[in-house]
Amino acid sequence: MQNKIICVPGQRLCRLDSTHTLGKGTYKRQDYIYSSLAGIVNVDNTNNKISVVEVRSKDKTIVPAPGDIVTAMVTTINQDMCKCLITSVCGHELNETYRSSLRRQDVRMKEIDKIDMLQCFRPGDIILARILPMTEAHTFKLTTAENELGVVIACSEYGHPMTPISWTEMKCTKTSAVEYRKVAKIVQDNTEKNIS
Question: How far apart are CA 151 and CA 108, in angstroms?
Fold first, then answer.
């Protein structure tokens, strides 16, 4: 592989093997290294045995990659899936949104056959989800099948903010009406406290 190669998000760069490994701006898919950014490919050969393949970008264009935690807004919903717009990746706000979908079988790990999508999400909900490995080019599939993933911000059917009261319920702050959701367990991040 030569240096100074310009690439786009989702472009296959090289095979992931004993001589090439992942660097910044890349992700793995089926034993190959792919670019998650638009930018210039850089190969770091300082370690004689393994070359680190990375992509450097001036404008910091971020594209969701498999395994990333994303924030998304639910736009439409039916019994089998909901469609979402990804608004941030790993805490970085995006300049443009990416379309994605969350299938019923990827909502939670247990009792998949009992899942009712309308009791898990509603249009307008803000969710935390993980990007699944890509099966189709430029189609992002999401999962919330972890305790820390699910609805983080929601409004009641009356338009008022809601607060979580259990893993499966949120309560309207004005009317006290309870609605069902797949609620995310929010974990406090102590890294900022440790740094300061």
Answer: 12
Residue 16 DSSP class? -
Rounded to whole angstroms, the Cα distance separating 183 from 169 reads 7
Collapsing DSSP to helix, strand or coil, 114 comes out as helix
Closest CA to 124 of 177, 181, 188, 165: 181
Q: Spell out the alpha helix ranges (H) of 2-154.
A: none
Between the CA of residue 143 and those of 9, 71, 73, 94, 154, what are the distances in Å?
21, 12, 14, 20, 18
Q: How far apart are the first and last CA of the chain?
A: 42
Structure confidence by residue, pLDDT tens digits, 66-80: 899 999 999 999 999
pTM exceeds 0.70 = no
What's the rounded Cα separation, in Å, for the pair 25 and 18? Answer: 19
Q: Which one-letter DSSP state was computed for residue 117?
A: G
- Confidence band (pLDDT; 50, 70, 90) for 60? low
pLDDT the model gives residue 90: 83
CA-closest candidate to residue 79, choices 102, 100, 110, 108: 102
